[in-house]
Amino acid sequence: MIAGLDKLVAPANGGFVSGRYEVAGMTLYVSNGTALWPGFALRLGRPSELTRITLRPAP
Fold it and tell me: pLDDT value at position 22?
């Protein structure tokens, strides 16, 4: 994601751009991505990430 472009993308994506969101009692996580692509990287001003999510049963 190019810095500043998130404000243009957000309305078309329900306001979800990057990070953790609470939606109807559930968690939605939108990753910045790994920036691994055989072409050129389209990520300026945003760090790439590998996300690890651990699921645990509710207490």
Answer: 94
| CA gyration radius, the chain | 14
Q: What is the pTM of this model?
A: 0.64
Q: Per-residue b/e over 7-17, b at no fewer than 16 CB within 10 Å?
A: eeeeeeeeeeb
pLDDT (tens digit per residue) in 19-34: 899 999 999 998 877 7
User: Could you give the CA distance from residue 52 to residue 34 in angstroms, rounded to a whole number?
Assistant: 12
Distances 21 to 1, 15, 27, 43, 44 between C-alpha atoms, Å: 18, 10, 6, 22, 23
Amino acid at 53: I
Helices assigned H by DSSP within the chain = 6-9
